[in-house]
Amino acid sequence: MIYLSEFAFPDADREFDFRQGVKRTCYDTVYPFHVLSGKGLGRLEFATVTMLYGGNGSGKTTALNVIAEKLNLTRDTLYNRSNFFEDYTALCHFEARAAIPANSRVITSDDVFDFMLNLRTINSGIDQRREALFEEYLDNKNERDFRLRSIEDYDRLKRINLARSKTQSRYVRATLKDNVREQSNGESAYLYFTQKIEENGLYLLDEPENSLSPERQQELARFIEDSARFFRCQFVVATHSPFLLALREAKVYDLDADPAVVRRWTELPAVRAYRDFFRAHEREFE
After folding, report:
1. Of residues 146 and 242, which shows the higher confidence score?
2. Which of 129, 217, 219, 226 could in theory staple to 243 by disulfide, Cβ–Cβ 3.0 to 4.6 A?
3. DSSP characters over 164-197
4. pTM for this prediction
5. Distance between CA atoms of residues 214 and 92, nearest Å
6. In the 8-state DSSP scheme, what is residue 285?
7. Can you tell me the distance from the alpha carbon of 58 to that of 258, in angstroms, rounded to the nearest whole number?
8. Residue 35: helix, strand or coil by DSSP?
9. What are phi and psi of 43, to 5 degrees?
10. pLDDT digits (tens, 9 = 90+) for 196-212
C-alpha cells in the first residue's frame, strides 16, 4: 500500500530566497536549511517500502524528521528541532495517493531507548517491592493476635490467610506481577516495534537496527515485509543495515551519492564492505 507517493524538499535557490527575506537573528544555526540541498536531495518518490541509506551526516535522519513534521505524524520523544524547522517544512510539498492514516507515526532510536529505560525503571520498582513482600509474608505468616475490628482490617485478613495457605514464593507471585525484565534489550526493542506498528499505517523508522542483534534485525525485516504485504502498511526506513536494505522490492536511495540516487542494495558501499570482509576471512568459516 502506498499512502505517501512523493515528497519534495526546497532546493538551494528557494532556500537562498528565504534567507534573503529573513532578518538577522542571534541564532547560530538555520538547521535544517542547507542539509538536504547540500546533499543534492530534492525529491523522494516512495514505494511500499523505501530505504534511505547513508552514513553519519548524510541527512537521512533529517529527511525523516522533516517528512514527519510536514505530515504531523505521531512521535514519542523530542528531536533535534531548530527555530527554523517550521519555516523549512513550509517550503516542502508532498503528494499522497490516499489519506495518511491517523495511526501513522515516526519511530526513532530515542523512542526505543526510552521504552527500554522505562522497562528497567519498572523492573527496579518490582524488585524493590518483591523484597518488601518477603518481609510482609513472614509478618503475616507469623501473625497470631490479629483481630478483625473494622472493615479497614479486611484486606490485612486476606493477606494473612493468603500467607498461611501458600509458600513464600507463591505468595509473592500471587501479589506481584512477573518481572518484565526477562526479555533482553534486543527483545524489548523488537517488542516496541511490534506494539507500535499497526495495520493500515505509514511508518517512518530511523535506524531501527540499533539495539537489535543480527538475528533480531532479520526478524524485524520479515515483520516489515509481512506488514507491507498483508496489512496495508507503508514504510520509509533510514538504515545502513544490510538485513533491512535487502528487503524484497524495497526502493533504496543512496544519500551518500551527490545527488542522491536509487541503487540496488548490493551496490551500496557499506554492503560491499561486508562482502569483502567475509570473503577475506572465508577460510576461517570452514
Report:
1. 242
2. 217
3. HHS-HHHHHHHHSPPPGGGS-HHHHHHHHHHHH-
4. 0.75
5. 36
6. G
7. 10
8. coil
9. -150, 140
10. 899 999 999 999 998 78
